[in-house]
Amino acid sequence: MAYPTSVKESPSAGSQLPGIRGVLFDLDGVLYVGSGLVQGAVEAVARVRAAGIPRRFITNTSTLSRNSLLARLYGLGFDVDPEELLTAPQATATYLRTHFAGVPCHLLLEENVRRDFPDVNQAELEAAECIVVGDIGNSWSCELLDRIFNRLVQGARLICIHKNRFWQTCAGLRMDIGGYITALEYCTATQALVMGKPSPHFFGTALEELGLPPETVAIVGDDIDMDIGGGQAAGLRGVLVRTGKFRSAYTATSEIAPDRIIDSISDLPDLLGLTG
Ligand SMILES: [Mg+2]
């Protein structure tokens, strides 16, 4: 583990974030880490809900389908309306329906997540004109990368659910699919279409649903690149939590400056000035 876990003091720690009328919650690393609940997360979400603050739960997770994620949130005790959940696989399925209808697509996705893609004309990798990449666990290999590479140089489009650099598991940090996507981009001299955070389109969909201007909405996340950087690029305020994949050394060397850094989601109600 290269990154020390000591906490970097934010210059704005303890101060409130005024003018926030809506909240986007990242899931993994903010509300829970692996199978463990972040202490105070259920209460913090309940207080935001009770205050009548419009909210969306937005995630790049592509290991679980939308319904499985909802079941997980309910199992952990969160009070979430189904329409409040916005997932990167869901955004990808919508994009494919709009821009790649009928096009042969190869879905490099876990079985559970394929349920979110009922309309896709699924094809073998070697026959695909579009390749959708999500989390496939330990299935990555040099052979698979070469097969994708060869299809891409023949003109297939590369679509990724997200391009995260790393993620936090119960056993520590793990390299995420962004590394594989970047390798494929480099070797093919092409750019993948990124569907989840930090895509401005993904944040735009959430803002549209909330009906609020971006500067009045806070994204609360543990990923300084995808959550905070992506959110700020879309005009939102970025609140970084010191849970999940947060690492002080990585944060200290980042060019991204969060609007606020809080110890955990349990500090959010105070940050927003919620009473009761
Ligand atoms: Mg996260």
Please outline the major beta sheet. 6 strands, parallel
How many DSSP H or I helices? 10
The appropriate CATH architecture of the largest domain is: 3-Layer(aba) Sandwich
Uncertain residue ranges? 1-11
Determine the CATH topology of the largest domain: Rossmann fold
What topology, given as strand order, has the largest sheet? 5-4-1-12-13-14
The average pLDDT score comes to 93
What is the element string, with H for helices and E for strands? Answer: EEEHEHEHEHEHEEEHEHEHEHEH
Number of domains: 2
Specify the overall morphology: globular
Helical fraction? 25-40%
| End-to-end Cα distance | 40 Å
Q: State the fourth-level CATH superfamily of the largest domain.
A: HAD superfamily/HAD-like
The fraction of residues assigned to DSSP E strands is 15-25%
At the first level of CATH, the class of the largest domain is Alpha Beta
| Backbone CA Rg | 19 Å
Category from helices, strands and their pairing? alpha/beta
Bound molecules: magnesium ion
Number of strands: 14
